[in-house]
Amino acid sequence: AGSDRVLTILSLFEVAKQIEEKTPDSKFERISRIDKMIQDYLIEHTEFKAEMLIARIAIARLAKNNSTIESLSHEFIDMNPLTIQKEKSRGFSQYQRISWSNVYSWCLSSYTTNQSDGLANAVLAGCLVQIQKKSDALGFVKVAFHRLPSDKFVKGLLAYTLQISSMNEEVKSLLSHEEEKNLTRLSIIALAQVCEKEKTSDCNVKYWNQLSLIDKADPSAFLGLMNFYIEKNDFVSAKKIVEEGISRQPSSADLD
Description:
The structure is a single chain. This protein is an all-alpha fold. It is built from 16 helices and no strands. Helix 3 packs antiparallel against helix 4 (49-62) and helix 10 runs antiparallel to helix 11. The model is unreliable at 1-7, 19-23, 86-98 and 250-256 (pLDDT under 50).
């Protein structure tokens, strides 16, 4: 029943497209109610956050609410792919009913009708990262960054996509003058992984610790720090990191 409920909610923005009211206000009120239903459902079903964000972005575009489009798009493109993979591995039968190919089709649909929109390009790139089509993602996120060069979340997605494409020098060049306070989740992950590749452990630890300050439950920080201590043969510290990670994420398949 839960999975059917999710599928119904995720299709609501398709219904909203077909709403024909006599006055625009009543149409937007209906769209607002649909968005509220999704927000309420997310409170108890955080494992569907990525899918719900895509649905909410589509609804915000229907309502022509630009500030909401921006904030939701930023939240989506800055999601840690490892976190999403963790949720998928936790055994939620409902999650298995939601296909990333469907989410991608919604992203593509939004992009098709908003090709000149930088955020639409960025969201599509984010979807492509999630389904591990990094070369395609890189093309779209470069377009997004060209149109939104001052958007730190788009820059973070570009940095992450460059890093998973083994373009470490480009990552360092992109973020070399970025103030620490402006680094997003994906920017920090990209820089930490560049440090790992280059065996510069001091900066590696610096970024993983910085990530844990942004989100205490982000699995990348704990896994990164754990691997660092294991490589140093400091198994006592590694054990403490694992225990702390498990305490913050009791259902984490990655840290069990």
